[in-house]
Design goal:
84% helix, 421 residues, mainly alpha, 20 helices
Length: 421
């Protein structure tokens, strides 16, 4: 099991939460002061009795809600009172429950498939790329980018990278590459896209021949008889041979219909057919593919590919405006226009995204929920307490404020009824 780094410090509370805490504490202190003052002056005027009732009940209500809110995250006043510090004591159960909730309600392939059918991902991407939102939309983009960056930073890179690498390797193993290569090669031959490659191979052959002329001469010299070497005819044979090879290469470069070029194209066409329809060729290609995937060098390349992709995602997430500048921005906007104008491409992208998301949920749903559960388990009590408290802290302080005010109003009402009766 992958070990997760344990946080040793709590996160600082945001300024808004600090202000709300001060307001709640200040209100409770004010109610206590009101109770003490009104109790001293209760005999001087009947109105002070109402103030005393309001202050007393408000103080009790505020203290009760302070205890309830504090008991969620820690022991009130540091006292080990039963059923307090609920979140730290149930940290592991919270992680397991959250993971189970994600698995049940979000990572079921059937659920994701139904929801993804109603999502037009291609149109949303096209609008986003061609007309990036400003104002509130820009703030949303900044917030979403910050969230993505925090998620990528917070999740264990080795564990997540291992999942990505395993997923890519699994897809490669499941995909029979020979027919795909055959169709690509067949299309390239039909559109003459192989011609530049063949010309490049011929030019490389000419350069290789020129660079290794001495080897040809040495080979002819070694295989010639002693009479030929004595008369110097071996040099003549070598000159004729090299000249003939140079002319052959030059003719192949100048004549697209040269017999040897046509023979090479015939061989490529045969290979394209074998890749698609010959069982033996397809089996050999699949065996080579499996060996390549298992090769340590391939595994290191996948590791590097994931790290590069993760670093790129982090750069874009941390600077979404910068990602839309320069050549990259032009390319992205052009992609958005293409998606807007090509319904078939949009349909293909939506179908691909839907199948990819459903496939990820089916294959890696359990791994994702384990990642969430183990990440939460890896946090110490202070970390999870501070993160949850900072996330919902303002609402909790409103509970304290409301408890103080509602308690005071209830006390005031009871005192009024008591006076009337």
């Amino acid at each position: 099991m992958t070990s997760f780094p344990r946080a040793s410090t709590t996160e600082a509370a945001p300024p808004a939460l600090v202000r709300m805490r001060r307001i709640a504490v200040g209100l409770l202190v004010a109610m206590a002061a009101l109770f003490l003052v009104s109790r001293q002056l209760a005999a001087t005027h009947p109105g002070w009795g109402f103030a005393q009732a309001f202050g007393e009940a408000a103080m009790v209500g505020g203290l009760a809600d302070w205890f309830a809110v504090t008991a969620l995250f820690r022991h009130p006043l540091g006292l080990p009172i039963p059923h307090t510090a609920i979140i730290p004591r149930n940290k592991d159960r919270i992680g397991d429950t959250l993971a189970a909730f994600l698995r049940t309600n979000f990572l079921q392939p059937a659920v994701i498939g139904r929801r993804m059918r109603r999502v037009d991902v291609a149109t949303a991407i096209a609008r986003w790329l061609t007309d990036p939102p400003e104002g509130a939309g820009g703030r949303f983009r900044q917030g979403a980018s910050k969230l993505v960056a925090q998620v990528l930073d917070g999740l264990d890179p080795q564990r997540l990278g291992g999942m990505v690498k395993a997923g890519i390797a699994a897809r490669l193993r499941e995909t029979e590459v020979a027919p795909i290569l055959g169709r690509v090669m067949q299309a390239a031959l039909a559109e003459q896209r192989h011609a530049p490659l063949l010309d490049g191979a011929i030019r490389w052959g000419a350069k290789a021949l020129a660079a290794n002329e001495h080897l040809v001469r040495q080979m002819v010299h070694d295989r010639a008889g002693s009479i030929l070497r004595w008369t110097g005819l071996d040099e003549t044979v070598a000159d004729k041979l090299i000249a003939g090879l140079d002319k052959l290469v030059a003719d192949m470069a100048d004549d697209p219909q040269h017999p040897l070029r046509l023979k090479a194209e015939e061989g490529l066409d045969r290979l394209a057919w074998d890749l698609q329809f010959d069982p033996a060729t397809r089996a050999r290609v699949e065996a080579m593919k499996v060996e390549l995937i298992a090769n340590p060098a391939m595994q290191r390349w996948l590791d590097g590919l994931w790290e590069s992709a993760r670093a790129g995602l982090l750069r874009v997430a941390r600077d979404p405006e910068g990602a839309m500048q320069g050549q990259l921005g032009d390319m992205l906007r052009q992609l958005g226009q293409t998606l807007t104008q090509d319904p078939r491409l949009s349909h293909t992208i939506n179908r691909f995204v839907r199948r990819a998301v459903v496939g990820i949920a089916a294959d890696y749903g359990d791994g994702i929920v384990r990642l969430v559960s183990e990440t939460v388990r890896g946090w110490d009590a202070d970390t999870i307490t501070s993160r949850l408290e900072n996330a919902v802290g303002r609402d909790l302080q409103y509970i304290r404020i409301n408890g103080t005010l509602v308690g005071g109003l209830v006390g005031l009402a009871i005192h009024a009824v008591d006076v009337l009766l």
